[in-house]
Design a protein that fits this description.
38% helix; Rossmann fold; alpha/beta; GMP Synthetase, Chain A, domain 3
Length: 321
């Protein structure tokens, strides 16, 4: 066995040795090209140390050069938006992210609702995220990695930021250390403003989910949001009808304070997928306030969000085909 063959064999037996994409031996100098795309700075340093020590154990080698490549893997962004506030968009975004993670996807959640960040409360996350190389490291919660401006400011603090500052904050959230994630759910603020435009023009989501309540006024605004995504060539992957029906906890009778079926009818009219409806249920509100989203548990509500996530992935795959 030649020295080069010996070196390759030893590298292959080293933890993470499969990341070595090219090995060359010139005299006593070994040159390695290593894929470090999904590693943070600390992990890259550890990998380089292990591979260097392995190479130097080959008797003919006295010098080792290692080139770490950090080409970013494609990450799919899914925007969750609404035409107006108060329709439960952030709750839907959090539970969809968790349901996608439980289905086997590697999921991140960005709370881009800069002026009204609520994901830290919904996801039960406290404390500020760490930073490596001036980039934030997302915090794990319920199988999802998450970042929010709400983690960076004191609770109840008003953010009086103009457009450029908001766009900078969005960039810091999206350009963080999202290593190890394939899908990033972006919880947008309501409406059709600067953040929506910045996201679609610079980061180009693979698609969007629109959340609405059933009544006509909410659907009018939801249609405006759908129109914005269409104008910027971002496919709408589905419409979710939230607060659809209320079951009285005492008598069990179901009433529809916001109407019923409006979002599904609108999805059919516009020719976009309907992902499902979420009832106006006190258990969903209580679990969200407590930082334990229902999608992270078991039972009827968890199954509801799991079904919506399955439809979302099918719609995404169709849009990308």
């Amino acid at each position: 066995m030649t020295e080069l063959e010996t070196l390759k064999a030893q590298l292959a037996a080293t933890p993470d040795g499969g990341r070595v994409s090219d090995v060359r031996l010139e005299g006593a100098r070994a040159s390695l090209v290593v894929d470090a795309s999904e590693l943070d700075a600390s992990a890259r340093a550890g990998l380089e140390t292990r591979l260097r020590a392995t190479a130097l154990r080959v008797s003919a080698i006295t010098e080792v050069r290692i080139v770490l490549t950090t080409e970013k893997r494609e990450r799919i962004l899914i925007a969750v938006g609404s035409g107006k506030g108060g329709v439960g968009k952030s709750t839907i975004a959090a539970n969809l992210a968790i349901a996608l993670a439980r289905a086997g996807h590697r999921v991140g959640l960005v709370d881009a609702d800069i002026y009204g960040p609520s994901q830290p409360r919904i996801m039960g996350v406290e404390g500020k995220p760490e930073a490596i190389d001036n980039r934030m490291v997302p915090v794990a919660a319920h199988g999802v990695r998450m970042l929010s401006v709400g983690q960076l400011v004191a609770a109840g603090t008003a953010l009086a930021w103009r457009g450029p500052m908001v766009s900078t904050a969005l960039g810091q959230l999206l350009d963080a250390h999202w290593d190890g994630t394939d899908l990033i759910v972006v919880d947008l603020p309501p409406g059709t403003g600067d953040i929506q435009l910045s996201l679609m023009q610079k980061w180009k989501p693979a698609g969007a989910v629109i959340v609405s309540t059933p009544q006509d006024l909410a659907l009018i605004d939801a249609t405006r949001a759908i129109d914005l995504f269409g104008k910027l060539s971002v496919p709408v992957l589905g419409l979710v009808e939230n607060m659809a029906g209320y079951a009285c906890p005492h008598c069990g009778e179901v009433s529809d304070p916001f109407g019923t079926g409006g979002a599904e009818a609108e999805a059919a009219r516009l020719g976009i997928p309907f992902l499902g409806r979420v009832p106006l249920r006190i258990a969903i509100r209580l679990s969200s306030d407590a930082g334990t989203p229902p999608a992270a548990g078991e039972g009827e509500d968890a199954a509801l969000f799991a079904g919506m996530a399955e439809k979302l992935i099918a719609s995404l795959n169709q849009a990308r085909a």
